[in-house]
Structure formats: C-alpha cells, structure tokens
Amino acid sequence: QGAVYFEIPPILLTIYTLGKILGVRAQQRSLTWSQKFLDVPTRCWKVLPNGGTLPTSIDSIHSGDRIQVYPGEMIPVDGVIETGSSLVSSTSLKGESFATPHHEGDTVLAGSINHDALLVIRSTVTGARREIDQMAVMIDDDLSRVDGVVAVEHLQDRTLAGTRGSAEHSA
Questions:
Q1: Residues 88-121: pLDDT tens digits?
Q2: What is the predicted pLDDT for the residue at 163?
Q3: Edge-to-edge strand list for the sheet holding 86-89
Q4: 87 neighbors 48 (Cβ within 8 angstroms)
Q5: Distance between CA atoms of residues 119 and 67, nearest Å
Q6: Environment class of 127 (CB within 10 Å of its CB; exposed 0-12, middle 13-18, buried 19+)
Q7: For the chain, what percentages of helix, strand and coil (3-state, to nearest 5) are there?
Q8: Do strands 119-123 and 79-83 pair parallel, antiparallel, or not at all (unpaired)?
Q9: Is 10 helix (H, G, I), strand (E, B) or coil?
Q10: How far, in Å, CA of 110 to CA of 42, rounded?
Q11: For residue 138, what are the CA distances in angstroms to 32, 72, 144?
C-alpha cells in the first residue's frame, strides 16, 4: 500500500490555528490603533456674534456655527475655513503623509490637526454628524465582529480540549 503519515494532519491543524490566532491579534491591534485617532475633542471654542468666544460642547454645535481653532489643536467640526490660512494634517482621516496648506473657503474635517495659525471655521454639519463619528460607528461594528471571532475561537479551543481529554481517558 504505501507509507501512512499520521503526523501531517496535526501539523496542518496547528499551522491553520496559529494563522487564525495571529490574524485575529493583528486585526485587534489595528482596530485599537484606529480608535486612538478617533479621539476628537468633545469641546470647542464657539465664536459669538459679538466676536468673543465661549467654550461649548460639540453636541450643541449646529450647521452654520463659527468655531475658533488655535494652532496645534485638533479641528473639532467638519466645516469650511472662514478666516485664516494654515497647514492642516489629515493623516488619521485620509492617510496623507504630510500637512497641506488650507485657505479661506477650503473644507476641513474633524480630527485634522491645525498646525500653524488661528482658524475660524463655519460648521457644515451638526455636532454628532461629523464624518469622523460615522467612521467611529464603522470601527465599533468591526470591533464587535472581532469579539465574535474571538468568542468562536475560544469555543473551538474548549471543544478541542474536551475532545482531547475524553480521548486520553478512553486510551
């Protein structure tokens, strides 16, 4: 008949299981890394009609409100630059590797970094309808799927352990 190689199935199962474990770990790390970039401020400086500013919650911002963003701060709203010009980095949102110049009339997204000048931005969306909030919802959905995969793998491990235990007892 020929030689029978009993060691091949356990080796293949080990390689397959190891690949699944490494894949889930990598997915969890990348999702955790993505969430760090979604940590957008929940407060901002609303420009009042008299020219003053007032610290305000993002939830109370409406389309058309004017927001003041200082150099080095993260832009808290999606909107259009009304006053000022600055280098703005959208690395966490668009993957751009460097900051790009933005001027009056240019669109900016919440989560971008204002690098070097004071900007006044007119909000184009209500506080919780920002593009970055929509991204956060998608990431949460992905995280729940990863947790489901981990739970299934844990169940597989327990089942395999129980099978091995009963096979050892019967031998």
A1: 988 767 777 788 899 999 999 888 889 999 999 9
A2: 45
A3: 100-102, 86-89, 113-114
A4: no
A5: 8
A6: buried
A7: 45, 20, 30
A8: antiparallel
A9: helix
A10: 11
A11: 13, 27, 10
Bridge partners of residue 89, in order along the sequence:
113
DSSP 28-78: HHHHHHHHHHT---SEEEEEPTTS-EEEEEGGG--TT-EEEE-TTPBP-S-
Burial class for 111, CB neighbours closer than 10 Å (0-12, 13-18, 19+): buried
Count CB neighbours of 68 within 10 A: 18
User: Within a 10 A sphere around the Cβ of 58, how many other Cβ atoms?
Assistant: 21
For strands 119-123 and 100-102, give the pairing.
Answer: unpaired
Residue 41 has pLDDT above 80, yes or no: no
The four Cα atoms 105, 107, 113, 118 give a dihedral, to 10 degrees, of 20
Sequence-distant (≥ 6) Cβ neighbours of residue 53 within 8 angstroms: 45, 46, 47, 68
Report the run of H or E that residue 9 belongs to, with start and end. helix 8-37
Q: How far is CA 100 from CA 34, 45, 106, 119, 130, in A?
A: 22, 23, 11, 14, 21
Better pLDDT: 154 or 100: 100
111 close to 75: Cβ distance less than 8 angstroms: yes
Residues in the chain: 171
